[in-house]
Structures are given as structure tokens and as C-alpha cells.
Predict the structure of Glutathione-independent formaldehyde dehydrogenase.
Amino acid sequence: MKALVYEGPREVVVRDMPDARIERPTDVLVRITTTNICGSDLHMYEGRTDLESGRILGHENMGEVIEVGDGVDRVRVGDMVSLPFNISCGFCRNCEHGLTGFCLTTPDDPTMAGAAYGFAGMGPYSGGQAEFLRVPYGDHNCLVLPEDAAERQSDYTMLSDVFPTGWHATQLARVEPGDTVVIYGAGPVGLMAALSATLKSAAKVMVVDRHPDRLALAEQIGAISIDDSKGSPVDRVLEETKGLGADRGCECVGYQAHDTQGNEHPNLTLNRLVDSVKFTGTIGVVGVFVAQDPKSPDPLYKEGEVAFDYGRFWFKGQSIGNGQANVKDYNRQLCGLIEQGKANPSWIVSHELPLDRAPEGYRHFDARDDGWTKVILHPEG
Ligand code: NAD
Ligand code: ZN
């Protein structure tokens, strides 16, 4: 089968790989119809992890079921399905509580929790930027989509990751109707957090970034855009909130946070959130703050130890929630919102490319080139 393969930092190629196939009775085999490039793929693409050369990338996958193992009861051949980026078993201590982002079975390593397709440090699984994908524990990991799925792929494809992740940011931040909310980052995840806050009837949603094309997308759904290259974003948030600070904050950037000159400062958005959010306010962090450093003998990248201003955070009596989104906890309800036309997350899609052009998609998305907000790939062209 054709697949997008990681070969080294900023080197990905489309080439022939062995076909994905059913390996265990509980597996489902999916013909991928849509698979997206994610900001999380850039952690591998930019060479910040020890991902081995030859792995197929891609954790935002949807497609048609073409074969099911003997132990699969619920999912049927012909179903259109969305596949949560977290691979989970459904029966471990964490999955029992809905914490499928922290599955204890699927990482294949007793010291770890959480697995994903095509990801460094998250189990041995191949990604779905390919013609076919093996889905472990298929009955549990497939969200069967409504009848209009084939025609509305660019909406439903957001259910595998960025829509639930944006929603998760607002859950962690405990957004309630009438709240003021500030979101750092207007990438796909930040824009989905803005959509989620809007769906939860936030009174005012503010989105901070410096890319005009991305900020314009935030404005399209009624958010206030704040361009931090034009002045202090903290001052703007205070102006917009009568000097109090926002009730809630969401971090949707991660350790690649940089200043407007391009210098990386992993603690920049966290400190700005502490300053932008009111005393006793709540903050949800979905941006990724851990990675593996191929140069370090320590398997965990120490830049994950972000020295943000804990003292000020403490003094303000704020709370923080963070981590991987438990996609399964939200995807059925968010699917309902799409089906009923109450959420149309495809508004962020900038490019739909055949899989063969994936390397070009990676290059432009990684450079955050103007107009390259969300790239979705179709293996069949
Ligand atoms: P992205 O890289 O496209 O978007 C990040 C945005 O942040 C960019 O538009 C960039 O300009 C902006 N930015 C950089 N520094 C900034 C700063 N100081 N202030 C404000 N904005 C700044 O990525 P994405 O796809 O939107 O993903 C964002 C983060 O979410 C990544 O870390 C990704 O790995 C993570 N993520 C987490 C989960 C989860 O389950 N927790 C799931 C998916 C993605
Ligand atoms: Zn993703």
C-alpha cells in the first residue's frame, strides 16, 4: 500500500509499504478515505523525538471498514468510521473511567499510559496516512459515523482529534455559559477550542496568535482576535475584561511556543495565561509539553520541565488541568453536533491534497505558510 513514511527530520516520503492487515481477532481493517496532518505530527517531523525512520505517520484518521476480525461484534464491513487518535482497550483501570488517553494496555510498555497511531513514544502502531490502517480493539475504537459521512468528510474528519481536543481544553478550563475565555494559539486546536467555547455559550472568546490568516478564521466564528505582534496580549485581554482577566484560559500551542521574533520559549504561553486569567480562574493545557530528545541519553526530553511562574499562579489561586484528550469521552456528542449542523469544523480546512502530495503539505504546514491552516489528505486522490 501507499503510505507517508518518516525518514528523518523534515524528511517524509510517500512510498510502498506492506499492506496493513488484521493481526488479532479484535482488529478492524479500515480503508482510509481522509487523514489529516496535525500540529502533533510536527513534533516528529521537526526531529524532536526519537521516532525510528520507516514509521508511517498519521493519527487523525477516518475511512470505511473493509474487514473485521472474528472477535468483532459491533462494527460491520461498509461502516464509515472515525478513529480516535488514542488507541485504547476499553477495559483497563483508566479506560473504565473514560480516560482513554491514558490506556494502560495499548502502549505495550508497563511504565507508560496512552497510545496513538504513528507516534513516537506512544506504542508500536502504524499511522493512517496510508491506504489502509489496522485498528486494534475495533469495537471500542471505531466511532460509526452517520449516513452523510461520505459527503461531509471534511467535517467528520475533525472528530478523530482536533475537535475533541479543543473541547477538552475548554473542559479542563471548566468553561461555562457567560464566561470570558482566552485561548493562546490559533492553530487547528486553538480554533477548535474557540469553537467549543462558543458552543458552550461563552460570553466572550479571545484568541491570541500572530498569523493573520488564522486570526481571521477565529473572527469568522465570532471570536475577538488578538495579534501579539502588535502589542502585549495580556494588556489586550485585561482591556477586554474590565481589568479583571479572563475567567478561563486555554493553552493550545505547546512547547513550540515562540516569541514574535521566532525564538522558542516553552514557558511563554503558560506565563501569559497566568497573567491573562483572573484570580481563581481556571486554565486548560492541551498543547504538548513533553517530547523525546534524540540527542539526550534520557528518554524524556527535559525541556518538558517548563519553569513557568508557579509562584504567581499559586498567588492568584488558579487551577490548571492538562494532558491528552480522551477523545472517546466526547466524540459521540460532537458527532451529533456536526450531524445536526450545529458545528461545522471544516471551516478551518485550507487544503485537501492527494496522499502523494503529503510532503508538500507537511512543508507548508510546518512553515505555517500563509493560508496553510489545516491540511487533509485523501489516499485515493
Ligand atoms: P499548530 O502548530 O498549527 O498551532 C500552534 C499555533 O500557536 C500556531 O498558529 C502558532 O503561530 C501559535 N503560537 C506560537 N507561539 C505562540 C505564542 N507565544 N502565543 C500565541 N500563539 C502562539 O498546532 P495545532 O495542530 O493547533 O496543535 C497545537 C498543540 O496542541 C500542539 O502542541 C499539539 O501537539 C497539541 N495537541 C494536543 C493534543 C492533546 O490531546 N492534548 C491533541 C492534538 C494536538
Ligand atoms: Zn492530531
